[in-house]
């Protein structure tokens, strides 16, 4: 999603309940994102890059939640005031999210 569009999405649609057709637009955006993620997850499972026991819909929801919140923090930096690690580039933060998704939190595999 283009940065400018996402900024509009977060600053206007997401946080202003009186935005015209808000629910319709949010639903369409989220539906398109879920469709894209669903295909990625299914392709990953079929190719053996992702576990074959994943629940596709739960995985799509979790990925959407993490990615949406990551992009929100980039578009609206004040959301993370006081908790964001200082001095990290956007690329470093993105790599950290990818690493967390790829390897999880536990020490076991």
Account of the protein in words:
The protein is mainly α. Helix 2 crosses helix 3 and helix 3 (56-75) runs antiparallel to helix 4 (90-103). It has helices at 3-14, 22-47, 56-75, 90-103. The protein has one domain (3-80). The chain is flat. Helices cover 66% and strands 0% of the residues.
> What is the averaged pLDDT score?
85
User: What percentage of amino acids are in beta strands?
Assistant: under 5%
- How many individual helices? 4
Which structural class fits the helix and strand makeup? mainly alpha
Global shape: flat
Q: What is the count of β-strands?
A: 0
Radius of gyration: 16 Å
Q: Distance N terminus to C terminus?
A: 33 Å
Order of helices and strands: HHHH
Q: Tell me the number of structural domains.
A: 1
Which ranges are low-confidence, i.e. pLDDT below 50, for 5 or more consecutive residues?
none
Name the helicity range.
55-70%
- Let me know the largest β-sheet: none
For this entry, give a set of tags:
flat; 4 helices; 109 residues
Write a brief caption for the model.
The chain is mainly α. It is 66% helix and 0% strand.
List strands and helices in order, with pairings:
Layout lengths: L2 H12 L7 H26 L8 H20 L14 H14 L6
